[in-house]
Amino acid sequence: MPTVHVKLCTPAPTGPSAPGTTEIRRLTRRHRALVGSGAIVLGVLAGAVSVLTPGMHLVFVWLGPLLGVGLGLSANRLTAWATHTEGTCPACSEALSLPGPGPVWDSAPSMRCPECGATLLIAIPRYAFGDREPGPTTKERAWP
Ligand SMILES: [Zn+2]
Fold first, then answer.
1. Same domain, residue pair 18 and 86
2. Cβ distance 108 to 138 under 8 Å?
3. What are 89-125's pLDDT values in tens digits?
4. Which residues contact 131 (CB under 8 A, 6 or more apart)?
5. How far is the CA of 128 from the centre of ligand 1 (A)?
6. Residue 87 alpha carbon to ligand 1 centre in Å
């Protein structure tokens, strides 16, 4: 799993930032299509099974497939999975070694500092996702 250099920054437009690293597992289009169609199938199956359960059949018959389609369509925006992040908190200057943040969608993923509770945006550069796949669009101030 490749390790890429990232910037850890606070959500404030003029907030401080600090360097860090994160381990990225890039997801291919085939992965995203598999996850998306799997979510749709599971949603439809959950809706079909809920027909047999009294009380649940009123809501989950339509909610299961709806959630499945929503998750399936949003899986197309999932570009990578970040498993481990290290660096320094820009708010309290403590060294961080955190699992996650997990899924990387179109924007910079966020985490909470366990020491001070500040929200940290993890700006991942576009090169981390290769030339063929679109990477996440990070805030301009977060990654020049
Ligand atoms: Zn902190």
1. yes
2. yes
3. 999 999 999 998 888 876 688 999 999 999 999 988 8
4. none
5. 25
6. 11
